[in-house]
Structure prediction request, 191 residues.
Amino acid sequence: MSANTIEENKQRGHFADADSLWLFGYGSLIFKADFPYLDKTPAHIRGWTRRFWQGSHDHRGTHEAPGRVATLIEQAGALCHGVAYHITPDVFDHLDYREMNGYLRFTTTLTFQDRPAADGLVYIATEENTAFLGAAPERDIAAYIQHKEGPSGRNADYLKDLAAALRALGAHDDHVFEIEGHLLALEDNGR
Ligand code: BEZ
Prediction:
């Protein structure tokens, strides 16, 4: 599958007739909401875990030196914390463009702290997309992203902003916090 997912996302008919819907954010959407929304609230989804396994050619890296950003990997029993945005479908023109580097829209069930669960959408970059980088030890991911940079800024800042946003939500994520720990140690050592 090509990394450019704009056309494929347009063909996906989920919630085509809905006036509004819930979108689950687990990566940059948590700390960078550059789109209009009707409501925003903490949420989680089940059966998926956050991993820095997706290559970023267009935001936190380049074609020559891709960054590593978050995607979701299926894992039985896992729970992924994030933020839900209640949006109108026209927002997808912007989001499909922003997240065109391998991310496809999937349906999922969102669980909220303060209201009944609801079905919604989530963007996921699966291993079929050509920008997918795959698994690596957290220490290696920290060393990899330390000096990567793209049009949206430093890869290390993406990781730190995500970790800070998860802490603000009161959400724990072993994978993200372990990468952050290695990254801070590398920075402390001036490497
Ligand atoms: C998210 O934060 O949910 C997200 C991450 C990457 C691409 C699209 C959405």
